[in-house]
Amino acid sequence: MTSTPATSVEELLLTADQLLAGRTGATAAGRRRGASLALRTALEISIDRVLDAAVPGFAGATTRAKMLCLRCYTAAETARRANAVWSHLCLGCHYHQYEIGPTHDQVRTWRTEVADLVEALTS
Q1: pLDDT in tens, 56-101
Q2: Is the entire prediction scored with pTM above 0.70?
Q3: Between the CA atoms of 67, 68, 69 and 70, what dihedral angle is there, to the nearest 10 degrees?
Q4: How many other CB atoms are there within 10 angstroms of residue 70's CB atom?
Q5: First to last CA, the chain
Q6: Gap between the Cα atoms of 121 and 9, Å rounded
Q7: Which residues, in sequence order, are CB contacts of 38 under 8 Å at separation 6+?
Q8: Is 115:13 a contact under the CB 8 Å cutoff?
Q9: Which of 35, 70, 73, 120 would be 19's cystine partner, CB 3.0–4.6 Å?
Q10: Is the dihedral of CA 108, 36, 34, 12 positive or negative?
Q11: What DSSP line would sit under 67-122, residue for residue?
Q12: What is the DSSP letter of 26?
């Protein structure tokens, strides 16, 4: 991310909660994909903040590169968990005709993991 995000991490987590609760007119599959995207964005913003504090100007790198560098600036377990859930969220965001998308329970689990990671990355 190269600019300051207009939406906060907390707003993105709230958006994911609202989508999972069905408070929008989208289809169930669309809500789950939308929630996955909101969660992935919240995680990426949190990672950007950690890395920008440690290495200013690193925001232009790809998220994959950021994931590799994250373990140098946070606990190894936190970096591993962030990489794992980010990978799952990437798959959950993308639509493919031949795949069913993520289930409600999967996205709910990812929501919990992202909230824990955001907390770990900000402390």
Answers
A1: 888 789 999 999 999 999 999 999 999 999 999 999 988 777 778 8
A2: yes
A3: 40
A4: 23
A5: 21
A6: 12
A7: 12, 13, 15, 16, 19
A8: yes
A9: 35
A10: positive
A11: HHHHTTTS-HHHHHHHHHHHHHHHHHHS--TTS----HHHHHHHHHHHHHHHHHHH
A12: S
* Residue at token pair 């920008």: 52
Structure tokens at 93: 């965001």
Rounded Cα distance between 22 and 28, Å, is: 7
Total count of residues recorded for the chain: 123
> Amino acid identity, residue 24?
T
Largest Cα span, the chain: 42
Amino acid found at 5: P
d(CA 63, CA 21): 29
